[in-house]
Specification:
Blueprint: H1 11-19, H2 24-66, H3 71-80, H4 87-102, H5 105-124, H6 126-130, H7 136-159, H8 164-195
Helix pairs in contact: 2-5, 2-8, 3-4, 7-8
Length: 196
């Protein structure tokens, strides 16, 4: 026997007829369960993506900080392999090596603080790594910092006598950091909307 709602002739009669069908509640419950399951799966995928990007970002920040401590030794190493670089970079590496060996340790203490700042900033991103929605402001802070690298490099670079190619490299750090943080922020906003 066909379901009772098939005999309904107009919209007003269809609703009670649908409600009286014993099969429909189960159908709607199953459909609702599938929708919830799909949303949950999307949330888990977004959360996984956020955590992967942030883990890589934190590791790179830590490496940027740690490698700022042995700056003399690193530049000395670059001098030994300078023949692999273009000529304009070879001159720059030699100049850096000379300047660093003439610089007293007390001045290089400033680069130790630079290294420390990178490490502290990396630690701040543990917040959104654990709970991106609650700590989305850290992602905003990171994106602002990445954008501000550009004016810093392009204004202070020429004042300090930094070659243009080195300023471009510095700017690339800001742009490279902005991409994963932007992706994380977008997915965090999507997660936030799904909780509403």
């Amino acid at each position: 026997m066909p379901p009772p709602f098939l005999f309904s002739t107009n919209g007003s009669q269809k609703i009670p007829a649908l409600r009286n069908n014993i099969f429909l509640p189960n159908y709607f419950e199953i459909q609702s369960a599938f929708i919830k399951l799909n949303k949950m799966k999307t949330k888990q995928q977004d959360l996984k993506t956020i955590r992967i990007y942030l883990t890589v970002f934190i590791v790179l920040l830590l490496l940027s900080g740690i490698t700022a401590f042995p700056i003399r030794q690193e530049i000395a190493f670059l001098v030994t392999i300078k023949s692999y670089f273009p000529l304009f970079m070879q001159d720059w590496v030699e100049q850096l090596d000379t300047v660093l060996h003439q610089t007293p340790d007390v001045v290089l203490y400033g680069t130790d603080w630079l290294a420390f700042a990178h490490i502290v900033i990396a630690i701040a991103f543990i917040g959104p790594l654990k709970d991106p929605v609650r700590n989305s402001w850290v992602l905003q802070f990171g994106m602002i910092a990445c954008v501000l690298i550009l004016p810093l490099a392009l204004i202070c670079g020429p004042i300090r006598g930094i070659p243009l190619f080195h300023q471009v490299i510095d700017c690339s750090f800001g742009l490279t950091g902005l991409i994963p943080l932007g992706i994380c922020y977008g997915k965090t906003k999507a997660l936030e909307r799904s909780f509403v």
